[in-house]
Design a protein that fits this description.
Helices cover 29% and strands 23% of the residues. The protein has helices spanning 3-15, 52-60, 85-92, 111-118, 129-135, 137-145, 175-185, 195-201, 231-234, 251-259, 272-285, 297-305; strands spanning 29-34, 37-43, 68-71, 96-99, 122-125, 149-157, 190-194, 216-220, 241-246, 263-267, 290-293, 311-317, 342-344, 348-352, 355-364.
């Protein structure tokens, strides 16, 4: 491994420490080095806080002059929550800046690099670019499409069942798997389920213990029929709950849920798919970067049919249920041929207690 790649890997490791804390901003890490010696490093720790370059420069001090800076994203050149990083880099006068990739944010988009080059600093772009883009895929998607990154999670048996034929699902996965689910919830902006799941499981959908983010809990409920005695509604005054209803939902039901502390979002659309599409647009408008869908099978199937899932987290328990009426992981219309199947890109596979945890970004195979 060459020295530039080695230092950039360290910067990427630092950047990911900001996951769940910096969104809707990107995760960014920075290393300043003289040869193999690291003289300063930092990462973007929280939204509105100092950027990675500023943290690294503070540690490096005067030794930054003539050194090499490695940063996972193009330094910003505009004034937002903090002053422009590119200007701080110019003042520190490193001889060289290695950037993983350009920032497509319109107010940056190459301007930060141009500012450095105009000051006589050599800039190289592209070291570990694929890894950096993968790390910040949710940020990049939100910029490009105006929609959040969609994570889908489910726990299932070896024969692909989410519950028994009677609807019993507690617990398919073990305690170690459920702990990972709580970690996932604690770093996303929203946790979303269908009304069937909300009725059957009566979940809280909260992260326990709390994570860096406090996700809004969303129930897809066309008729606004979520029970007022459910855990979600009863805890709405303490943690946000949104009920996504159709435009034909009874106004009285919407009013009762609103008075109980829920936000009722009424979306038009004649199908579940159309309303889900509208919801993702609305969540993107609210600058939500990551949203987690936890089922059930109808919701997951609708997302899969629409090609709307970006990343999956699946917990497979070593159990068999059988039963034609026991629900599978995803309903919907489904894929017609294996050649058109969705596939994980570079899946990660872990053992959690007795369970197998499979996760990674999703892509659709070429037709």
């Amino acid at each position: 491994m060459d020295l530039d790649t080695w230092h950039m890997h360290r910067a990427l490791d630092l950047a990911v420490r900001g996951q769940g804390l910096v969104e809707p901003n990107p995760m960014v890490g920075c290393v300043i080095a003289r040869g193999a010696e690291i003289i300063g490093e930092g990462w973007h720790r929280r939204y509105g806080g100092h950027h990675a370059e500023v943290e690294a420069l503070r540690l490096a001090g005067r030794r930054a002059a003539g050194a090499t800076m490695y940063v996972t994203l193009e330094p910003c050149c505009h004034r937002g929550k903090t002053p422009p990083c590119a200007e701080a880099v110019v003042r520190a006068a490193p001889a060289r800046v290695v950037v993983a990739h350009r920032d497509p944010f319109p107010e940056v988009a190459g301007k930060g690099i141009a500012l450095l080059e105009a000051a006589g600093i050599a800039v190289e772009v592209g070291t570990c670019e694929a890894e950096a883009r993968r790390m910040n895929a949710p940020y990049l998607k939100l910029l490009e499409t105006g929609r959040p990154w969609v994570l889908a999670k489910w726990a299932m048996t070896l024969d692909g069942k989410l519950a028994t034929r009677t609807g019993d699902s507690r617990w398919i996965s073990g305690t170690a798997s459920r702990a990972v689910v709580h970690q996932l919830r604690g770093r996303v902006d929203a946790v979303i389920v269908g009304r069937g799941t909300a009725e059957r499981d009566d979940p809280l959908l909260s992260a326990r213990p709390p994570g860096p983010r406090n996700p809004i809990r969303i129930v897809l409920d066309t008729g606004a029929n979520l029970g007022l005695d459910s855990q979600l509604v009863r805890t709405a005054p303490a943690a946000p709950v949104m009920v996504v209803a159709g435009d034909a939902a009874p106004p009285e039901r919407c009013r009762c849920l609103s008075e109980a502390g829920c936000e009722v979002l009424v979306l038009s659309g004649t199908t579940h798919a159309e309303r889900l599409d509208a919801l993702l647009s609305e969540l993107g408008r609210r600058r939500m970067t990551n949203v987690l869908f936890e089922g059930g099978a109808h919701v997951l199937g609708t997302l899969l049919d629409a090609g709307a899932i970006d990343e999956v987290h699946v917990f497979v328990a070593p159990k068999l249920l059988g039963g034609a009426d026991a629900p599978g992981a995803a309903a919907g219309e489904g894929i017609a041929t294996m050649a058109a199947a969705f596939a994980l890109t570079s899946p990660e596979i872990e053992t959690l207690g007795d369970d197998v945890y499979i996760h990674g970004p999703l892509r659709k195979a070429a037709m």
